[in-house]
What we know:
alpha/beta; two-stranded parallel ribbon; 12 helices; 6 strands; 42% helix; globular
Amino acid sequence: MEKSKSDIFEIIKDYHCDECKPLELTDISTWIEQFDETDRSFVLEEFLHLLRQGIYVSKEKALELLWNNFTFVANKLGYNGDLRTFIYESHFFNVQKEGKSQTVLFSMLDTLVENNTGIKLNANGGLKVKNFIYIDDVVATGKTLLGTLRSWLAENDNSNAKSVVIGDYKLIVTVFCMHQWALDNLRWSLKSTFKDDTFLKIPFVKCNYLIDNRVLYPSAQLNLILPIKDQSKIVLDYFEAIEAENYADRAFRKSGRPIKETFFSSSENRDRFEKIILEKGVKILNKVVSKKASNRPLGATYPHYKTLGTGTLFFTWRNISNTCPLVFWWDNPAHGWKCLFPLKGRGN
């Protein structure tokens, strides 16, 4: 187990490196010792296998991705290396609260851009702005992204939406990680709101890591936590007690899916790992007196979804999405759990 702990630490050691208390090797030991003794070695080894597939973005990697995504979008829009014109003709959304992921990434990209071009993002160069770009780290449920774009599109009696539809404005989303279901819902919601099928293909998305969570598609990769229905009584009782109705048919994956396992080390190990993570999450929530309807054992989701959670397995150096399973971020002594990735800026 010690080798697995050390290997995991080498991957995630810069978590909260910008904070006063970065991650320590002993934090991994504290976390894993909360699992049943017979499961500890297995959980560490399987988690290490998953981490090696790129589900953790260090600060150094984030800087690389930000710049690569920036230049990719510029070239995709036809600027062919003319980054100064691209900057002058582009507006980058920066609407989240201070300290949230978008503001942090905007600041990092702004510095990169200034160092490489001599000008800053959203600079006034006297040119007409026609590219509107939303950046973020993870889009899981898509709630924040949808709210931002819907509000902007609706400004001035839907004038921005009309400009996007006729092609005068380009709407782009660039993120490290996105759930496919969230993207599908985003486009459908915009189409429904603004009554135009054009939005079924808008916005253009540059995503470095796509989570294929199309539960009902036989070919879906399902690179997330999504267990089969063969679970313990405590889990099934919890599921039946969820006071929601929508998407109950997507709460569990069918046995034998995905058809070819490419995410976990094997199909059998997927089943076992998911059962362990799910049951621990249920036991944590069962100790919570006043529960938020959105909190589920596999991570936060829409309250009206009858599912076990979003199941995100993607982490960055700066924070963890609360759409990840609770065992990774829930941290409350009253509930008997010490997490691996403490949340910043959100309570539980």
